[in-house]
């Protein structure tokens, strides 16, 4: 499916979708418990993969309505996952694969985990090594550290050493599973932790489910023998700042003079991607975040290039690169090597696709420079690389390009923001899909 975007003015009030990261964790935590009600979950292709995983391990997930909103009534497997009766397809979801690979290490048998072509090209090796060091079995069928995976246990816990600069999801996976092992898991990081705020999200969700995990001088640890159980038997998911970033960028670039963009559901949490507010402010954006109300208001303004490190906010790279292409001056995005291990290599994807739109970019291994303002962006046919974040960032860039921009692979927004195009159209964007 293609998205057709032309220069637009946007404005009005909308609501951020629920957080994908929090939703994954809440569903799996409920699975590790004897159950829980997950309120306002994100219902997307990625989170449905985690729902399937919890069911494959012996739980159940029923959709229901609670106070007018979707809720998931999860029956858990109480820390004792069954061996799935079929291959576990994690589709496009790296979070599902990493987190439930550790779940498989708790089961008394073997689980086969696979995913789509993109997910089968992403790194799993350090987590496989960690499971094996705990006494479990964890193999890549092709011997290349990538899925399909064969993983088995049960492990009782122990000490593991793991790199921190490939995926923080390896740490999240081990902490969540370690809580229900006999001995717990102690993690020593061999390299600096990238995407660190995502482990903060994990610790926050575990705390809400009555499980304690802590940072140490060397990494993280979680005691064993803990029981998951949320206060009141339920957990409410906050709004997603990674998804919000596209709406805020659209407002900063293209808000109508008479109608700013207002995004609701923006309550503070452990999400590192709330840094998009600071980035827009530093670029000269007119943005106000009422934290108490959970509302962010953004007006159109002239933006200037900025230097920003994305070590902790990898998912913001596409948004920031698109903003930089429309801003005056150079935007320098640093610490971005790990952003190459996502659904696609997002550093090269944004460099190449923005170049098609007339941007001037320079790509290094660990940084991306976008020289904006030299010429206006021009509409072009661009490849969304089957990556939801590339699709959404290029769509936003198309709002200020001369002529029509056609973004290929628009259907992939279903991974994290299924209503993205409807939301953009409701704000007045000239965008259609076919
Ligand atoms: O734990 C999570 O929910 C996520 C962690 C990040 O991945 P890495 O830790 O692999 O950088 C991020 O890119 C992804 O969108 C979601
Ligand atoms: C990389 C992402 O998610 P995952 O790692 O779960 O595929 C993402 O949402 O940008």
Automatic annotation (TrEMBL):
* Keywords, alphabetical: Amino-acid biosynthesis, Aromatic amino acid biosynthesis, Cytoplasm, Transferase
Give, as in the UniProt entry, the pathway in which the protein acts. Metabolic intermediate biosynthesis; chorismate biosynthesis; chorismate from D-erythrose 4-phosphate and phosphoenolpyruvate: step 6/7
Tell me what reaction this enzyme catalyses.
3-phosphoshikimate + phosphoenolpyruvate = 5-O-(1-carboxyvinyl)-3-phosphoshikimate + phosphate
One biological process GO term for this chain? Answer: amino acid biosynthetic process
Entry's localization field: Cytoplasm
Enzyme Commission no = 2.5.1.19
Any single Pfam family the record assigns to this protein: EPSP_synthase
Identify which residues the record assigns to the active site.
315 (proton acceptor)
Q: Does the keyword Cytoplasm apply?
A: yes
Q: Which residues bind 3-phosphoshikimate?
A: 20-21, 25, 167-169, 195, 315, 342
The Enolpyruvate transferase domain covers: 7-424
A GO term, aspect molecular function? 3-phosphoshikimate 1-carboxyvinyltransferase activity
Does the record bear Coiled coil in its keywords? no
Class in the EC hierarchy, top level: transferase
Q: Which GO terms describe its cellular component?
A: cytoplasm
Where, by residue number, does phosphoenolpyruvate bind? 20, 94, 122, 169, 346, 389
**Chain intervals for the UniProt region annotation (Disordered):** 1-21
Coiled-coil intervals, chain numbering: none
Similarity remark = Belongs to the EPSP synthase family.
Q: Subunit details for this protein?
A: Monomer.
What does the protein in this record do? Catalyzes the transfer of the enolpyruvyl moiety of phosphoenolpyruvate (PEP) to the 5-hydroxyl of shikimate-3-phosphate (S3P) to produce enolpyruvyl shikimate-3-phosphate and inorganic phosphate.
Q: What is the protein name given in its UniProt record?
A: 3-phosphoshikimate 1-carboxyvinyltransferase
Q: Which organism is it from?
A: Salinirubellus salinus
What are the top taxonomic ranks of the organism?
Archaea, Methanobacteriati, Methanobacteriota, Stenosarchaea group, Halobacteria
């Amino acid at each position: 499916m293609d998205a057709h975007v032309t220069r637009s003015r946007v404005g009005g009030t909308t609501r951020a979708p629920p957080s994908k990261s929090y939703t994954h964790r809440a569903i799996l935590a409920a699975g590790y418990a004897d159950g829980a009600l997950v309120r306002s979950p994100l219902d997307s292709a990625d989170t449905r993969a985690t729902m399937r995983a919890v069911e494959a391990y012996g739980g159940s997930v029923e959709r229901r309505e609670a106070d007018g909103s979707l809720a998931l009534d999860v029956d858990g497997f109480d820390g004792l996952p069954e061996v799935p009766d079929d291959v576990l397809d994690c589709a496009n979801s790296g979070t599902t694969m990493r987190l439930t690979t550790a779940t498989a290490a708790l089961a008394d048998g073997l689980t086969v985990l696979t995913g789509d072509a993109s997910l089968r090209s992403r790194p799993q090796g350090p987590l496989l090594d960690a499971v094996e060091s705990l006494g479990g079995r964890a193999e890549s069928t092709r011997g290349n550290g990538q899925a399909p995976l064969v993983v088995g246990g049960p492990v009782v816990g122990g000490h593991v050493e793991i790199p921190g600069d490939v995926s923080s999801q390896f740490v999240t996976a081990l902490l969540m599973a370690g809580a229900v092992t006999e001995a717990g898991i102690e993690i020593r990081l061999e390299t600096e932790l990238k995407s660190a705020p995502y482990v903060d999200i994990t610790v926050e969700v575990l705390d809400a489910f009555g499980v304690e995990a802590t940072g140490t001088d060397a990494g993280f640890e979680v005691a064993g023998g803990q029981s998951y159980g949320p206060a009141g038997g339920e957990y409410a998911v906050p709004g997603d700042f990674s998804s919000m970033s596209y709406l805020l960028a659209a407002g900063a670039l293209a808000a109508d003079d008479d109608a700013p963009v207002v995004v609701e559901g923006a309550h503070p949490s452990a999400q590192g991607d709330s840094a998009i507010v600071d980035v827009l402010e530093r670029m000269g954006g007119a943005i106000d975040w009422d934290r108490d109300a959970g509302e962010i208001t953004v007006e159109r303004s002239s933006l200037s290039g900025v230097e920003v490190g994305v070590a902790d906010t990898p998912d913001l790279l596409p948004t920031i690169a698109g903003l930089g292409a429309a801003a005056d001056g150079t935007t320098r995005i640093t610490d971005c090597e790990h952003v190459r291990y996502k659904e696609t290599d997002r550093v090269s994807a944004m460099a190449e696709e923005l170049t098609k739109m007339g941007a001037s970019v320079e790509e290094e291994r660990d940084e991306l420079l976008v020289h904006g303002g030299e010429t206006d962006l021009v509409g072009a046919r661009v490849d969304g690389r089957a990556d939801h974040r590339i699709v959404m960032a290029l769509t936003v860039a198309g709002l200020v390009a001369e002529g029509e921009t056609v973004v290929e692979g628009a259907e992939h927004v279903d991974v994290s923001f299924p209503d993205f195009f409807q939301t953009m159209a409701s704000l007045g964007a000239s965008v259609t899909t076919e």
